[in-house]
Amino acid sequence: MERMILKRLVASALTLLALSAMCFALLTLMPGDPIDQLVGSDPRVTPEDIARLKAYYGVDQPFWARWQAWLARLASGEFGYSRLFAAPVADVLGPALARTAGLAAAALLISTVIGVSAGIVAALRPRSLFDHVASFLAFAGVAAPSFWLALMAMALFSITLGWLPASALPSDPEAGLLERLRHLIMPVAILAALETAAIFRHARAAVGDALLHQHVLTARSKGLPGRRVIWGHVLPGAMIPLTTVLALDLGGLVSGALIVEVMFGLPGMGKLLYDAILGADYNLAMAALMVGAGAIFLANALADMAYGLLDPRIQTGGLAP
Amino acid sequence: MTASPAARARRRFFANPAATLGLVLLTTLALSAIFADAIVALLNLNADAVDFANRYAPPSAASPLGGDELGRDVLARLLAGGRVSLAVGLAAAIGAASIGAAIGLIAGFRGGWIDAALMRLTDLMLALPVLPLLIVLAAVDPAKLGFEGAAGPGASVVRIVAIVALVGWPGAARLTRAAALAARSEDYVRAARAVGVHPVRIALRHVAPSAAGPLIVAATLAMGQVILFESTLSFLGLGVEPPLASWGAMLANAQETVWEQPMLAVWPGLAIFLTVVAVNFVGDGLRDAANPRAERRR
């Protein structure tokens, strides 16, 4: 077990390293370089000054040298300075990460409870009215653009009915806790709805497959009561594939969070990345990308370890993303 | 009476109501995109004419969906936007399927460490969140990649097709790899290898055709996905550039004016939704028709 975890960690670290090189390369392909951005169109700065600044910050170095310098700074705990927020990147990143984690955790909790229970009920009563309605809603949730659903919810609840605010943060910074929570209802509910659609489909499929397993048929034919068949034989078999797809779906959760944050003006990781890329703040963008990727890797590694607990047969030799 | 496999597959496809509905819907959407100009002319509309008298105009006989914030006709713009959205979707789906087919074929046919490395890349692409990846790719300056003079609305369409195809290939790669793996141990492939046919020729002539079915299904399903990708990027202002409008770009405008006229946000989103639903119905129908033994799960 320890060997396996160690192997996983090394593989994940190597993949993250490769990913950081890829992101770094993509960021250098974006318009302008840091010094051009810094200097802007200040007429007092001569071309000689720019050349000197570029040499000083190492911008004139080749890609590999700059990437290595970035890694070295990272190793000493240095994320660099965010031009957009005029603050160290770490100071900007911390609160944003907390907001996104809160948003995602709340949405994930709601959607897992609703999605998994609805999926089980639908799979146990295939082609019932409940199954048809839930499957249709889930399909619609996956096929409709997420930003459109958010826009429609905004139009309905904020504009037409006037029940809920259309921003994630109150305009009054002194607002009380209840008012703050009221602003968060729509962002959390929309993200939860999107995620519920995906989780329901996976849970429905996983339980449907588990119902066909030989040991379930055996348990049934030997006359075990339905309740014990489901809790003792069907659900444990369904948990393994479900854990895999839930971990894989985290990418979807991150994308959904980005859309919700941008649309409702919640300064979390997704909005930070969006603003950083559009504002050419590449130190911040790089840090946000790496922290996000690290979180996804960690979640996938945890899911893999969860299999070991769920299913003793599994020998995880494969390398994880 | 024995029908050919293709005829039987066709019959199975049309026996499936969802697939038939999807095909009808998709054909309607495609025809309205192809003949957008003719329809607009026939209805005596104009997609680009700014007319402030028609600003936020309610639906009427002359203008069935009303006017937008500049008084442009919404139906005419919807038809023109559909042309861009569907063209980008089709081109990017073909691109994504081609990339995926190449990667899957190489991985499945070569095996060994090449297979391991390519599948690891595929798994990585599937695990990474799509939207941040799309945003990063969309912000890349084409001039720095050596595409000088690649500016303007037309170039933005080519750019977005490339970006979306670069992100949308993993599904096709997995399916093609599975088909290639299965074909690799078939007798006819072993026979070809035994008589010394060049590996590239075996891959293209003997293995690739058996992957064609899954690949068509993958390309169809990928089209739904890439249309969603394109609309999201255009919504975020990183997609097609004005004055060209895709449905996603129309929704970006509609968000700004949603307080004045919420209905403007309804139509383009509904159009995207119907397209993705239709594409998925057709894709699922094709898969079931081509593979009658596979159990039908929903």
Query: How would you classify the quaternary structure?
Result: heterodimer
Compute the gyration radius of chain B: what is it?
Answer: 22 Å
Text of the CATH class of chain B = Mainly Alpha
Query: What is the CATH superfamily classification of the domain at 89-281 in chain A?
Result: MetI-like
Largest interchain contact: A-B, 53 and 43 residues
CATH topology category name of the domain at 89-281 in chain A: MetI-like fold
User: What average pLDDT do the residues of chain B reach?
Assistant: 83
| Residues in helix, % of chain A | over 70%
How does the helix and strand content of chain B classify structurally? mainly alpha
Shape call of chain A: globular
Biggest sheet statistics of chain B: none
Integer tally of domains of chain B: 1
Please report which band the strand proportion of chain A falls in: under 5%, 5-15%, 15-25%, 25-35%, 35-45% or over 45%. Answer: under 5%
Strand content of chain B: under 5%
CATH homologous superfamily descriptor of chain B = MetI-like
| Mean residue pLDDT of chain A | 84
Overall number of strands of chain B: 0
Distance between the termini of chain A: 18 Å
CATH topology of chain B: MetI-like fold
- Elements of chain B, N to C (H/E): HHHHHHHHHHHH
